[in-house]
Amino acid sequence: KLLSFRLEKESDAFKMGQSLPNQLYPDLTGMPMSLSPHLRFGSLSIRKFYWSLRFAYMQVHPNSPIPASITSQLIWREYFYCMSVNNPAYNRMKENPICLNIDWYDDEIKFQQWKMGQTGYPWIDACMRQLIQEGWIHQVCRHSTACFLTRGDLWIDWQKGLKVFDSYLLDADWSVCAGNWMWVSSSAFESVLQCTRCICPIRYGRRMDPRGDYVRRYVLELKDMPLQFLFEPWLAPQKVQQEANCIVGQDYPSPMVDHKIASSECKTRMDKIKQRSKDIPHIGPASEAEALSFMWVSMERRDHKMTVCKHNMDIAK
Ligand code: FAD
Ligand code: MG
Fold it and tell me: Which of 11, 111, 187, 210 makes an SS bond possible with 182, Cβ 3.0 to 4.6 Å?
């Protein structure tokens, strides 16, 4: 049932000429349509999901080639799996040949503030509180909180963040979780650390949660804060804070760092690391053919599978 529900959403997107509906329009307060815990525990076969997506596309656009983008997220999963093969140190910084050694801070107090959703940035706090309460958060929330902890703001070790995700996420997966943490923190998989730009916890939050419903659901202290100040409540005039029953610094924490300053310091550090690591190659598949070869599926076998898949569906009809 869950798979059919998900495939319906995908087909609707295909009809509108889109793909990855869950990414394009993240519905943070709706029912999650993610199947990631099922993929993690094997209660949904990754192959079934992959071929069903392709078949769903074929039904909507019978005469066009199937774009790789519709299954690209699944490929990332395989990619992180492949990259962890024969690397028992894949979830650590030390002795891990693909991970840069970065001199992260070891600040237990700041780390706890991040973990417990007490950073003073409502968007980040909402994400962390949902994680701890419900065991699942959307990709945009994972990306924001991981970036904030590491190269974005706090410069704290990604391995500490990984431990938190690993204990709370329903879909926690050894290869995928560590792979994403290394990627977000620019420790691996970056084309020479191109991505020195980081996520702004105010602007990005506003973009992802334009009506503020998500923040209000998880950060109850701010439930009466006007939308104008919801993502930066410390800017609300004293009178507005009083009316909203939320005095910043008393009922809800003041921001633990100044994002502008913190992120620019992080960027300077990253730039230095970038200078030092010029020769590190980008570790990623170059084309769909290469990605398929990683999965022991050649282009011919893929086309053959599609024919078999269509044949089976015809019989089923
Ligand atoms: P969709 O976008 O619909 O993707 C479909 C499937 O593709 C997912 O169910 C998942 O199996 C796979 N997938 C999607 N994005 C990624 C990705 N970036 N890397 C690898 N596979 C992906 N996903 C996990 O399954 N387990 C984890 O432990 C995990 N840890 C993460 C940690 C961090 C710091 C970040 C940034 C991402 C992490 N992800 C993890 C990846 C991603 O956030 C989730 O897979 C996704 O949010 C699940 O929602 P979905 O099924 O709707 O995703
Ligand atoms: Mg995703």
Answer: 187
Site of tokens 């993929």: 39
According to DSSP, the residues that pair with 252 across neighbouring strands are 248
The pLDDT of residue 97 is 84
Over 90: is that where the pLDDT of 294 sits? no
Would you kindly state where each structural domain of the chain is located, as residue ranges? 1-84, 106-316
Report residue 83 as tokens. Answer: 């990259």
- Cα 161 to the center of its chain, rounded Å: 13
The residue whose CB lies within 8 Å of the most ligand 1 atoms, and thus the one to mutate among 9, 50, 80, 139, is: 139
Domain made up of 1-84: CATH architecture: Alpha Horseshoe (1.25)
Q: Which residues of 37-47 are buried (b: 16+ CB within 10 A; e: fewer)?
A: bbbbeeebebe
Are 179 and 100 a contacting pair, CB within 8 Å?
A: no
d(CA 4, CA 33): 10
CA dist., res. 20 & res. 226, Å (int) = 32
How many angstroms separate the alpha carbon of residue 301 from the centre of ligand 1?
Answer: 26
106-316: which CATH topology? DNA Cyclobutane Dipyrimidine Photolyase, subunit A; domain 3 (1.10.579)
Assess whether the C-beta atom of 309 lies below 6 angstroms from ligand 1.
no
Report pLDDT digits (tens) over 249-264. 999 999 999 999 999 9
pLDDT at 222 over 60: yes
Kind plus residue range of the DSSP H or E element containing 5: helix 2-15
Quick one: pLDDT at residue 314? 56
